[in-house]
Design goal:
By secondary structure, the protein is α/β, with parallel strands linked by helices. The protein folds into two domains: about 25-260, no CATH class; about 265-485 and about 505-650 and about 665-690, 3-Layer(aba) Sandwich (Alkaline Phosphatase, subunit A). Helix content is about 45%, strand content about 15%. It is built from 21 helices and 18 strands. Helix 3 (about 70-100) runs antiparallel to helix 8. The chain is globular. The termini are far apart.
Length: about 700
């Protein structure tokens, strides 16, 4: 070789060696420990925490598992790993970045970061602990429902009191502090580790790698779309799918989307409003009902009198919304606990719909649906507090007030809760009798107010006073004693029921509510107005009991619906098996009263249905994006962006539901999906366009 130039190949080799040497200097053993050991240990600790609490949740809620086999629950852990990894990456990344760019922090700075870490850890662990009792109550993971009632100080005070008196707070908080202490000790050890001086090039590369790893993990891997709750749906078991979710993931996602009405927007894109109106009218309108201004209002109409033959037309109406009065614990609908002897006797003397459903899982939605015949729509669980709730509705109080009825609403507690008074004062209720309006009550719960007995006694007094003035009236009664923490009076002679195992508190809550109801009717029978009055009894919602049937949580919304009036119906008394809904109450009452008024009910007159009609009902649990459409013994469950599922169900004892039958019966699934879409879009269009009332 001549000359001083080296061959090109040797130059390339030299460059490669130089690059490797630079890489080694940038990624020393200490740097590797910084980049991988600390980050991986921290992320691994979060993963372990989420897996531990998934196990605690399953063990604590095992009675709800239904058809979830051990194999499916193993799948819950496997599918849940994506959600756990997503949260582990997000929660670890800020502290890992701090360790990269501040390898030798001062003592004060380190303490500040340790405090921040402790705060994040405590909030996360507290959420995981609280989720156990939350799931027992509502059969959903943490999400919109958990934040629904956080707001006004007086509301927060009531919620805190209810939680303190009704749940094992001390036991769970001890667990929370123990786990938090161990986790904080680990974090303190990691955040105290010193990496020494690091080249800025190393810090930059490490940051890029860390951010990339965090993005990939938070998205659930290399996916076309970000991780979302629907990715937890991997089986036909609602319980197993619930267990695959991550409560902290759901809660953060809820906060992130709190100001976005995404669900309603996605629903409205599924069908044009004119098409939705047309399909909805075919489902809802009965023979002889003609729509008014159909291009504007989906269901505005006049209705004919009920087809049922009455002994006489009622003069007054008393509608009793019964707190948490689940059909699953009611003797008239098949339960064997013996908790509701008084209601059972009334059912034998009236007309009972034993397959009735509440529209949702909270009192506010049940009262709204029963009195306004308007559904609980996606994004509008709190419609009575929402600005769109300020518009007028063709509510039952409004319609009867226009027809000369006095309207009054009696309740145990504070009418400011859920904005009940603010909403219904603008929708036809003249008088409100609430917590502070009872003189010398026999019992007062510190959280919820007076007992059901106090409410019923005052109701009898008010109704008798109105009847003495020859004044027709609509009396609305909403009970509350059958509610956690079940701080109940102990009436003489009312024996406590012991056969309900874990549900004893609930059963005895219903037992007391039933006793108070019996006392109400016993006194009412002595009054002149009793024989002229139509009574309607309905549960505002049920409560979560195992098993979890479908993603809609069917049993939570199964309630009794009873129309009662011995002198109204005469000798007619029966149990009807057609599906019914709280939405059907308003048009049914109008039909029985034979009032010629304009209304826009999203329900139907139950006594004018053709005998072969199986009935239908719409469901949407509070805080959930999942909606259900029931026809006869079938339910379609759907959510925007997710494939619907079709099931048959059985409300016997024990109850059950089939696997997803959508593939076996695609035509039926498609038909019910179209009906559900039309129903939701029609409701959203009327609500958002301020067309709930002319």
């Amino acid at each position: 070789m001549t000359g001083g130039r080296m061959p090109a190949k040797s130059t390339a080799g030299f460059d490669a060696c130089q690059a490797r040497a630079i890489f080694r200097r940038m990624f020393s053993a200490k740097t590797a420990r910084l980049l991988f050991f600390q980050y991986l240990v921290l992320a691994g600790a979060w993963l372990g925490l989420f897996i531990l609490f998934r196990g605690i949740l399953i063990l604590s809620t095992w009675s709800f598992h239904g058809d979830a086999t051990p194999g499916l629950l193993f799948g819950s852990f496997a599918h849940g790993f994506l959600f756990d990894l997503s949260m582990a990456g997000r929660l670890s990344a800020p502290f890992a970045l701090w360790m990269i760019w501040r390898p030798e922090p001062g003592r004060i700075e380190r303490r500040v970061m340790l405090c921040l870490f402790g705060l994040v850890a405590f909030l996360s662990i507290f959420a995981l602990v609280a989720e156990v009792e939350f799931y027992k109550e509502f059969q959903v993971r943490l999400g919109p429902l958990a934040l629904e009632y956080i707001g006004k100080p007086e509301d927060n005070k009531t919620i805190i009191g209810m939680i303190w008196h009704g749940y094992p707070v001390v036991r769970w908080m001890l667990l929370c502090f123990v786990v938090w202490g161990l986790f904080l000790w680990l974090g303190r050890w990691l955040l105290r580790t010193k990496a020494g001086r690091i080249r800025w090039q190393t810090q930059a590369v490490a940051s890029v790698l860390l951010i990339a790893a965090t993005v990939i993990s938070s998205r659930g891997g290399f996916r076309g779309s970000p991780l979302r709750w629907g990715d937890a749906v991997f089986s036909q078991s609602a319980y197993a799918n619930h267990m695959a979710q991550n409560g902290v993931f759901s809660l953060i996602d809820t906060v992130r989307h709190a100001r976005k009405a995404t669900a309603s927007t996605r629903w409205k894109k599924l069908m044009p409003a004119p098409e939705a109106f047309q399909i909805t009218r075919k489902m809802i309108l009965l023979e002889g009902e003609t729509p008014i201004q159909p291009e504007v209002f989906p269901l505005l109409r006049r209705s004919r009198p009920s087809a049922i033959e009455l002994k006489k037309r009622p003069k007054n109406v008393v509608l009793v919304g019964m707190e948490s009065f689940s059909a699953r614990f009611c003797g008239a609908t098949g339960a064997g606990f013996g908790a509701t002897p008084n209601f059972d006797q009334l059912a034998r003397e009236g007309i009972l719909f034993d397959r009735a459903f509440s529209v949702s899982t909270h009192t506010a939605q049940g009262v709204f649906a029963s009195l306004c015949s308007f559904a609980n729509l996606p994004d509008y669980d709190g419609i009575m507090k929402h600005s769109l709730g300020a518009q007028k509705f063709r509510s039952l109080p409004s319609l009867l007030k226009e027809s000369g009825f006095e309207t009054l609403f009696l309740y145990n507690g504070d009418f400011a809760w859920d904005n009940k008074e603010g909403f219904f004062r603008g929708n036809g209720v003249n008088r409100f009798i609430g917590r502070k309006d009872y003189l010398n009550p026999v019992f007062v719960d510190p959280d919820w107010g007076v007992s059901d007995l106090d409410v019923f006694r005052r109701a009898n007094e008010e109704f008798s006073s109105l009847a003495a003035k020859k004044q027709r009236f609509l009396g609305l009664i909403l009970t509350l004693s059958n509610h956690a923490p079940f701080n109940l009076p102990k009436p003489e002679g009312l024996e406590r029921i012991q056969g309900g195992d874990r549900q004893n508190q609930r059963i005895n809550g219903m037992h007391y509510a039933d006793w108070a109801l019996g006392e109400f009717i016993k006194e009412a029978r002595k009054s002149e107005w009793f024989n002229d009055t139509l009574f309607v009894f309905v549960g505002d919602h049920g409560f979560g009991i195992p098993p979890v049937l479908t993603q809609a949580g069917l049993l939570h919304q199964h309630v009794p619906l009873l129309f009662y009036g011995p002198e109204i119906f005469g000798d007619r008394h029966e149990a009807r098996h057609q599906v019914a809904s709280q939405l059907d109450i308003l048009p049914t009452v109008l039909g029985l009263l034979e009032l010629d008024v304009v209304h826009q009910s999203f329900g139907r007159d139950l006594f004018s249905l053709p005998p072969e009609d199986p009935g239908h009902a719409y469901l949407k649990a509070s805080g959930s994006t999942v909606v259900g459409w029931i026809q006869g013994n079938q339910i379609l469950v759907a959510s925007p962006g997710e494939p619907p599922s079709l099931h048959t169900y059985d409300l016997a004892f024990p109850p059950g539901a089939s696997e997803n039958l959508a593939r076996q019966n695609p035509e039926r699934a498609s038909q019910m999906e179209q009906q559900l879409r039309a129903f939701v879009v029609s409701g959203l269009t009327a609500l958002q366009n301020h067309h709930c009332s002319p």
